[in-house]
Structures are given as C-alpha cells and as structure tokens.
C-alpha cells in the first residue's frame, strides 16, 4: 500500500508525486497519459523560467523529473473508481479498469480536464495549426492577425475581449440567438472597435490551405445563408470538461463537475485531495496546476503525520 497515491500525471500530478516522494513516504502515480494536456500543446511560452518549449518536450521533462525519485509509476492505466477509507486514517481504494485495486492512506486526484470540441470538419486537421483553445496560451501567436472565437458564454466573450487587445480583428460566432455571457462582459465586447458578433450562427467548417487555417464557415440559422470569414485562427470556447466522471457520488463536485477544493486542496472527503484543472481552482494553466500539485502533496503529508496509521 501507498502513503500517497496520485491519480493523473499531468503537471499537477507530477508535482504532487515529486513533493510527496521528497518527504520519504511511499508514493505511487497512476495515469492514462504521462504529461496530460501538455502532450497536445505545441509551444509553451508561459512556464516561468522556461521562455520557450514544446508540449511533448515538457511532458518528457515532467516524467524525467518524477523518475529522479522513488515513485512507483503506473502509466497507461485508467482509474474507474475511488472508494474512500471506511474509517479515518484507513486505506482508500483506487480501482483500475483492468480490475486491479490500489490501496493508499491518502489520494491526490489530478485528472485534469479536456476542451469540448465543436466537431466540425477542419477542427482536428488544423489543431495547433490555427485551431486553438486557450487564449492565455496561444493569443500572442496571432498578434496582428484575424481570428474567430466560437462560443458566446463567459469564456468565449472573455476570450474575445482578451484577443481583441492582441490580434487585428475578432469575429465571435454564437449558435444561440443571443450571447449568454454576463451583461458587463457583453457590453465591454460590444464597445470594442475590432470585434464583430454573429448570433444564431452555426459553425459548419474550419477551412485551411492544407498547412494552416484560412477561414471559418457558418450558417445563419435564421436566413439559412452560408457565410465564410477569412482569418488565420479559430479559438474554440464552448467549455472545459473536468475528468471527474468517476468521482460522481464520491466527492463534492461543482455544477461544472469540478472537484470542490479549499485553499489547501482538501476535498469533501478527509485524506483525499484535488489538484489542477479537475478542481474549482480558477485559471487552468500549467504553472497553476504544478503549484496546486505541490500544495496537495504537502496537505497529504500534513494529514499523514497527524493521523495514526491503521
Ligand atoms: P492534465 O494535464 O489534463 O493531466 C491529467 C492527467 O490525468 C493525465 O495524465 C491523464 O492521462 C490523467 N487522467 C485523466 N483521467 C484519468 C483516469 N480516469 N484514470 C487515470 N488517469 C487519468 N497551459 C499553459 O500554462 N501554457 C500553455 O501554453 C498551454 N497551452 C495549452 C494548449 C492546449 C492545446 C491545451 C489543451 C492546454 C494548454 N494549456 C496550457 C493548459 C495546460 O495544459 C493545463 O492547464 C495543464 O495541463 C493542467 O494540468 P493537470 O495536471 O491539472 O491536468
């Protein structure tokens, strides 16, 4: 059995495993993909002290850093269920989809999130070639260019306002007949000179020249007319989905499915911690996820030294 078992090996999980192992306690990490979302990222330019790197390189560095320590790594394993300890200080059980069961005194859930796709032709083909999901990450790559934002909720409208300050022109495309974002954001957006808004607009295709994005097609749902917008980038902002399905009924989740955590990464179950994009912590970024992973491990250690072993 483990003292600390980390579920997920993205930035949050890797940081948690390193911080736990440095305390000399029995540490395991179980995950489907070592590196998490960073594997799908082209350039990373905002991990402080690393001016520029690439996603797969960053993921490999995460794994190499974890391997410096005595950590039991179980990669390519999916977790299906978490069963909290029956009594305080007891062992929680983590069930894998291959049927195996792992026992640990504390569990850190760092299973991350995934961006909801719009599922139109061109989206997959031009991912990282003009199709983007994170304005904080990729906005500066489109400096002086034309982009579209798909989605008129809070994240879409915030993204459009943010991008309008960086790029030449923003077209916001919303499926519904009005923007769903808070009025203060909508008013701000409408005040910007380089933003165009289309509601009742169904994105039908992201077009490209084979190398990179060159346009977006949408259908006006009122007139039925098809339109094409010439541009260089498309930001898809229709939701970030936490990988927390397997925790329903076990941990308290927000209405968005995020694990509810406090400032020390405690969840609603003693001995179980949450870190990174899967939690309610705002601003889903690598540097934030690593900090949260470190915090969760220190909280788990704190719990272990205060709770008698079973
Ligand atoms: P993740 O990276 O999502 O890792 C989750 C881990 O949990 C993975 O190992 C996954 O396999 C595992 N997992 C999930 N479910 C299960 C399960 N049931 N069983 C077992 N394992 C499971 N951020 C930046 O700061 N800068 C950038 O430039 C940047 N660019 C980005 C570009 C793209 C295309 C994307 C998608 C994201 C980008 N981000 C960027 C955001 C950043 O990648 C995330 O904030 C960060 O990876 C979150 O780390 P995490 O450890 O919380 O989760």
Automatic annotation (TrEMBL):
<keyword id="KW-0274">FAD</keyword>
<keyword id="KW-0676">Redox-active center</keyword>
<dbReference type="GO" id="GO:0051287">
    <property type="term" value="F:NAD binding"/>
</dbReference>
<comment type="subunit">
    <text>Homodimer.</text>
</comment>
<dbReference type="GO" id="GO:0050660">
    <property type="term" value="F:flavin adenine dinucleotide binding"/>
</dbReference>
<keyword id="KW-0285">Flavoprotein</keyword>
<comment type="similarity">
    <text>Belongs to the class-II pyridine nucleotide-disulfide oxidoreductase family.</text>
</comment>
<dbReference type="GO" id="GO:0016668">
    <property type="term" value="F:oxidoreductase activity, acting on a sulfur group of donors, NAD(P) as acceptor"/>
</dbReference>
<dbReference type="GO" id="GO:0102039">
    <property type="term" value="F:NADH-dependent peroxiredoxin activity"/>
</dbReference>
<keyword id="KW-0521">NADP</keyword>
<keyword id="KW-1015">Disulfide bond</keyword>
<feature type="binding site">
    <location>
        <begin position="267"/>
        <end position="277"/>
    </location>
    <ligand>
        <name>FAD</name>
    </ligand>
</feature>
<dbReference type="GO" id="GO:0000302">
    <property type="term" value="P:response to reactive oxygen species"/>
</dbReference>
<feature type="binding site">
    <location>
        <begin position="3"/>
        <end position="18"/>
    </location>
    <ligand>
        <name>FAD</name>
    </ligand>
</feature>
<feature type="disulfide bond" description="Redox-active">
    <location>
        <begin position="134"/>
        <end position="137"/>
    </location>
</feature>
<keyword id="KW-0520">NAD</keyword>
<dbReference type="GO" id="GO:0032991">
    <property type="term" value="C:protein-containing complex"/>
</dbReference>
<feature type="binding site">
    <location>
        <begin position="146"/>
        <end position="160"/>
    </location>
    <ligand>
        <name>NAD(+)</name>
    </ligand>
</feature>
<feature type="domain" description="FAD/NAD(P)-binding">
    <location>
        <begin position="2"/>
        <end position="293"/>
    </location>
</feature>
<keyword id="KW-0560">Oxidoreductase</keyword>
<protein>
    <submittedName>
        <fullName>Alkyl hydroperoxide reductase subunit F</fullName>
        <ecNumber>1.8.1.-</ecNumber>
    </submittedName>
</protein>
<dbReference type="GO" id="GO:0005829">
    <property type="term" value="C:cytosol"/>
</dbReference>
């Amino acid at each position: 059995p483990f003292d600390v078992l980390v579920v997920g090996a993205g930035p949050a999980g890797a940081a948690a495993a390193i911080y736990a192992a440095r305390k000399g306690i029995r540490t395991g990490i179980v995950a489907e993909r070592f590196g998490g979302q960073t594997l799908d990222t082209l350039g990373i330019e905002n991990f402080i002290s690393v001016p520029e790197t690439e996603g797969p390189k960053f993921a490999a560095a995460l794994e190499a850093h974890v391997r410096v320590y005595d950590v039991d790594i179980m990669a390519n394993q999916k977790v299906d269920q978490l069963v909290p300890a029956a009594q305080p200080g007891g062992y929680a059980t983590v069930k894998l989809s291959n049927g195996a069961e792992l026992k640990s005194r504390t569990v850190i859930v760092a299973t991350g999130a995934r961006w909801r796709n719009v599922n139109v032709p061109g989206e997959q083909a031009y991912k990282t070639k003009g199709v983007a999901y994170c304005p904080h990450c990729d906005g500066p790559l489109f400096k002086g260019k034309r982009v579209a934002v798909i989605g008129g909720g809070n994240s879409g409208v915030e993204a459009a306002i943010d991008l309008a300050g960086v790029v030449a022109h923003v077209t916001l495309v919303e499926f519904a007949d009005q923007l769903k974002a808070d009025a203060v954001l909508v008013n701000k957006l409408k005040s910007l000179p380089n933003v165009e808004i289309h509601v009742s607009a169904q994105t039908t295709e992201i077009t490209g020249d084979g190398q990179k994005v060159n346009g977006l097609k949408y259908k006006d749902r009122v007139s039925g007319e098809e339109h094409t917008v010439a541009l260089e980038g498309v930001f898809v902002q229709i939701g970030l989905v936490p990988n927390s399905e397997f925790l329903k009924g076990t941990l308290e989740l927000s209405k968005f499915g995020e694990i509810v955590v406090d400032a020390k990464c405690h969840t609603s179950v003693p001995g179980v911690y949450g870190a990174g994009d899967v939690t309610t912590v705002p601003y889903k970024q690598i540097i934030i996820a690593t900090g949260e992973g470190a915090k969760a491990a220190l909280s788990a250690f704190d719990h272990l030294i205060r709770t008698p072993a079973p």
